[in-house]
Amino acid sequence: MKNLKPKILAYIPARGGSKRIPGKNIKKFAGKPLIAYTIEQALACKLADKIVVDTDSKEIAKIAKEHGAEVSFLRPAKLAQDKSMIIDSIIYTLDRLEKEQNYKPTHLLILQTTSPLRELKDIMDCWKLMQSTNATTVLTVCPTHPCFYHMKENKDITIVNGNEGISTNMQAWPEGYILNGCFVYIVDIPTLRKERRVITAKTKAVVCPKWRSADLDTPEEWVMAEVLYKNKKKIEKQIKKHESK
């Protein structure tokens, strides 16, 4: 696949019916619909020859088209439930595009609408890593403490990974990372179809700053992300200032 000229489909999932933040995908974030930021980045990166928003909502579809994305069809209700698997919606979209438009992309660029702090560089870094390695998936992560706990209803906590005897000092642990939203996924489509998953057997990652790894699932995260977005340049300047000391 590396030797073929890539044909990239930018896939933006945007299901309606958000429970925690009603109308999340088209709610105004720092002055414009949240989904607009992702569509604009998909256009600006100039990697994709087709940009598709996959939604079950006519209202989301209308706004997506106004900002330059395609919505050739709506996602069926059975694939738009709270517990629906994203891989099923992806396969459905790929199958319909192939059947109805004879469109057969080689790679899928998945961009979540809930990552307004994502930057164009994050997308390009993922594509460069995909092109220069044997990866069949490249995604973005951010640093985190590698020790995780589960909490029971009675407030008892148990360690999920690691050794409780290890120091609480962060430097005593190996570096840990978590998916950051996720900003970006780039997947080889033949592998995706074969394994029926986005995070395939040969997955590599690009590390992004923790402060930009916002994933808007709650009102608290929304408010915090807007503050960060409106002060991005100031924050970046202050971080560089501290790093140089």
Automatic annotation (TrEMBL):
A Pfam family of this chain: CTP_transf_3
GO MF term list: N-acylneuraminate cytidylyltransferase activity
Region forming the signal peptide: none
Protein name, entry field: N-acylneuraminate cytidylyltransferase
Native organism: Candidatus Yanofskybacteria bacterium RIFCSPLOWO2_12_FULL_43_11b
Lineage of producing organism: Bacteria, Candidatus Yanofskyibacteriota
